[in-house]
Structures are given as C-alpha cells and as structure tokens.
C-alpha cells in the first residue's frame, strides 16, 4: 500500500523552493537560508489519547498532527520549513485513511509554506499513530526559549483559554505568524505554547527561567467554550478552572519586559487579542492573585503525560 | 510518566557541539556546519511488523529504530547530526520500557556522534510504536541520490545478503562510515540502502535512474545466515533466493562508473568486502545473468510495504 500511497502523494505535493530532494529517495535534502541553525520539533499522536477516530474525521486528525508541531515552532519564534510524517495505520482501509489524513494536513502545510519532505507509511494490527517532525529556521532575532523570563517581566497571552475539547483542540490556529510578528517588532524574553494547561505551562516556563509567576486570576481571558463546558458538566469546576487547566489551547504564553508589554497591549498588533495576565517574580513557584490583592500558592493544573 | 522519563534522559544524554538547545524546550536548535543543506529521514517501527516485543529485548528494538535511520543517511552519503525520538508506549510498564529502548539506542547514537535533540514520549492502550527522525549534513561532495546511475555503471554492494531474520536485522552496522569513506575517495553515481530486498531495491534504484540493471546471480555474496535459513526452512527457496529477496540487510548498493568500480574492488578500502554484482544497462527493468551468460527478465522480490 505504501507504493500506491506515495504515488497519490506525488500528485498532491507542490514544489517548495527549499526542498532540494523530496519524498522518494532515502532522505530529503533541505536548503536552509541565511542562518546555519535549524530548529526541530516532533509530536506523536495516538488514537484514544489525542483524538478518537471513532468520532473525528481523519482530516481533522491530520491537520492537528501538523498544527501541534507548528505551535511548537511558534513558541520558539521559528519559521517552519519542512515536515516529515510517519503513519502507523490499521490494516483495514489503510490507503483511504492515509489519503484523508493528508487531505486535512496539506492545506495547513501550504498555508504555512511547509514542505512535506518525506515520511514513512506503515500498516499494522494496532490503532492509528501519527508522528510528525517539523524543521524550522530562526530569524535574525534568534530563538525564543523557555528560560529567558526575568522577575518583573509581564506574563502575556494570545487569545483565550478553556473548553478546547469543544473543537479548538482540532481547529486551533498555530500562532506562527503572531510569534514572528511579535518577535520582529518587540523585545520578548521567553515563550511557551499552552498545550497542557495555562497554569501548568506557566509553571514550567517559570521553572525553566529559575523564577516564579504570579497569575492575576481575573485577568485570564476565558473562552466561551469554557463557560459552555462548565455549564454542561456542572461538576463544580468554573469556567475559569477550565481556562487554567484544560490545555490544548495552543495559545502563546510570553515573558515580556514591562515597557514592551505595555506597548504590545496598547498596540494590539495581532488579529487576536494579547492580554496581560500577571507578572514573573523572584520567588519560585506558581502564585495567584485574586481581586483582594492577596497572593496565594497555586497548584499547577493541566495534563501530565 | 513523561516528566520522570525526561529526568532520566537528562542524566543519560551527553553534550553535543552542534546541539544549541536540547530536549526540554518547545523545540531543539541545531547549529549546522559549513553547508546550508540539511538531510532528513524518518522511519517508524511497530510491534508485530518490525520487531516482536514478546521475543526481542527492548534495547535491541531501540538500537534498530535509530540504526535504520542512520542507514538511510548512509545511502545519501550524509553525516548524522541529530535525532528526535517519539514513542507510543503500552501503559503497563511504560517507564522501564522507555528506559530499556534508550539503553539500546544511546550507545549507537554516541558511536555515530548523533545528538538526541528531543522527542515525544506517550502512553496509550495500544502496542509499542517507535518513530525516529534523523538530521544529517552533506559533505562537500554533495548528496548521493538514487537517480544518478548510468548505463555501464557497475553495481557494487557492501557485505553479504540474506537470512537477516536470524539476527542481522537487529544488529546490523549502519554503513555510514563506509559511505562517507567511499564518497570521499571515489567517484560514485548513486546509492540505496538495501532494506526491502536486494533485487527490489536494485530495481528501485534503476527505475529512479531511468535505466535497467543486469544482476550477475553468481556474483551475489550470500550470507551464512541465508544458507542456514534455507536449510532450516526447506521450503524450496535456495540461499541465493534469500539473498535476493529477504531484505533488512542494510547494506549499501552503489552505482559506480567502471574504472572507479575496478579501483574500489581492487583496493577493498573498507572493513567489509565490496563486491561487483552486475551492471546498469540502457534497457529498463531488472535482468539476471546466470553462468550460461544468458540474460533473463528477473522479477524484483522483496518486502512491499
């Protein structure tokens, strides 16, 4: 089935200026531009954990498999160049399934100028597994790491949070353009993409930067989906709880020096809103501040793999 | 379990001069040297197809997952730089399984100067899946592609063939050093690594080069394991049949102009034997020549994915 599938793929992949040797040889050759660094990220998605094939179209799953990787490049302020895609497909109906997965993935690849540089397509007796590795390049501003936050930096976020299970966890927009635009126009110190939960990923960024974070709970932008989910589940969790802990928002969480943060919040340079939700502090750990102004320890909540 | 595993991994990964940002951030940053091209290859291995966890140690499986990728880089004459490793692990015993897999992989990575640049470690209700992506760099001699063979080029192979299921399919030596040494000292036209069967991969190389191949059956170096397997199975297949069709030999198959091929065969510059097994010809397709000197059409045999 791989031979047939590669033939299908050949008809559906366009040219890419940086792809010197594409799928079909033993490896792909990419021509990198300007700088000698390349940025690499990989994510593997499995049926039953990251998606349920029984209730989701393979096209949405394919889109997501690439999008989560692009979100990682965004968090580094890297420009995507290429991706390789490996599939473990159930034997029954493998070819149409592979085609549908790519049908969801290719428009996103095209929109972000990502060359599909190769992959490995297999069938087996198990469920669907999709592994995507993306390669990107840095701009002249370098890489935006997790470890650059400093005390007094503001915590900024793009978009809103919570209830992603209602659809955003498949259909989110990887914040690649937003990250590149902010990186080009402002002085940023650190970033992470929120995949496992706002509070958990904030705690991770703070820890990597050897500082703490104080989250202003009332400032967190809560998605409509979080309200809908809270009301639907009625399990005692508020919409804000969902915003803090749900994960798969794939928004950017940034550490930005105060003057620059004020500029960004005033300028609102992106198509999506940028919100200040707190401050990095000297004291380690995650803290929350409510309207009363008191700081309390906050347990990082989210999805632990 | 991923947090624990990353902690274990942190204690077991050394520094690498080209790895600027390693595992733990959203992506890895690699510094490439000299040239601006990078070479990318990926392979995904599943339980039941590429290995059987019930009868093979996880360490051997982990070694193989990296080795098959290094073999692809060898076939491009690329020097390995880094790898990212994604695992889908059965929930039961996931952590010790991941540790054992890496315990088999890391010594090979070290021996070939491969930085483990990152990965994604997941548990799920299915079987073990390992996806490895390697990144390499070309030397000043450029890439050795599949499409460069010309009529009258000699077909050279490293090592011997057949019966890899008796052990070589796990314990083979990726021919990275051999490829780089041949590329540096001789004029080579094309290469492929024999993963799916000598006759099938030869047919693929010939097709990619828009020519044919004439295989001298008596010249094919047959592995001891192929004789052992033929005698064990007694299913009418000769040792030579196994050498032509078994696959997973992970030897190099090269297209080399006649004068250079003679030099290589005389010099025997590698630790493993290089053998001339035929000639590329104008007429498309795969042909075989037996001792009687007659050319007959040969059906490519091997593992079709």
Task: Give short descriptive properties of this protein.
homodimer; 305 residues; alpha+beta; four-stranded mixed sheet; globular
Descriptive account of the structure:
The structure is a homodimer of 305-residue chains. The first copy, chain A, has 305 residues and is an alpha+beta fold. In chain A, 32% of the residues lie in helices and 28% in strands. Chain A contains nine helices and 13 strands. A seven-stranded mixed sheet of chain A has the order 8-10-7-11-9-12-13. In chain A, strands 3-6-4-5 form a four-stranded mixed sheet. A two-stranded antiparallel sheet of chain A has the order 1-2. In chain A, strand 4, helix 3 and strand 5 form a beta-alpha-beta unit. In chain A, helix 7 packs across helix 8. The first copy, chain A, is globular and about 65 Å long. The model of chain A has no long low-confidence stretch (mean pLDDT 92). Chains A and B meet through strand 2, strand 3, helix 2, strand 4 and strand 5 of A and strand 2, strand 3, helix 2, strand 4 and strand 5 of B. Strand 2 of chain A pairs antiparallel with strand 3 of chain B, so a sheet runs across the interface.
